[in-house]
Amino acid sequence: MADRNVEEGRELLERAQNGDEGAFSELVRIHQSEVFTLALRLLGNYELAADAAQETFIRAWRALPKFRGDAALSTWLHRITVNTSWTLGRRAQRHNAADIDEVAPIGHDTQPSPEAVAENAELQARLRNAVTDLPDAHRAVVVLKDIYGWSHAEVAESLDISVTAAKVRLHRARKRLKESLWREMV
């Protein structure tokens, strides 16, 4: 029985690799539970996990003709699931992070007090000035990474530097921003 299932799995995979959408749908049905469960464990969020599972199968369909079978299909799908989950998780964190221009006062009031509005505007202005005062190389990394939410790799590619250089510049830029803003507060 196990040999028959393995043979059927190989046949489905081969048909799917040749563009048979029905065969791929059957592979999705077979593996969807394990893909979703892994995504849910990685992300801890049902909706994000569902998105990650769907994106995993989209990516798998696109890459299926290149699948060589060096690993089991389930192992390959797990690798795609992990990468997809990390990507979606980072994207969700970026969207949940406050934009520099959207710094809101902390409090329970639905309407901020005039003092809070003034403090918020002052904080935004100080932060914009501190970013503007950074050297160009540091400012570019901060804007691309912290404001636009790009990955280190995307920043590195855009600036034609290594990922390590992008990380170092970002670290140094954040350190300068922290020191600059701290000096203003003292």
Describe the protein in words.
The chain has two domains: 2-96, RNA polymerase sigma factor, region 2, helix turn helix motif (Rna Polymerase Sigma Factor, Chain: A), CATH 1.10.1740; 101-185, Winged helix-like DNA-binding domain superfamily/Winged helix DNA-binding domain (Arc Repressor Mutant, subunit A, Orthogonal Bundle). The longest helix is centred in the middle third of the chain and has 24 residues, at 73-96. The termini are far apart. Helix 2 (21-43) packs antiparallel against helix 3 (46-63) and helix 3 (46-63) crosses helix 4 (73-96). The mean pLDDT is 81. The protein has helices at 2-17, 21-43, 46-63, 73-96, 114-132, 136-147, 152-159, 163-185. The chain has eight helices and no strands. It has 186 residues and is mainly alpha-helical.
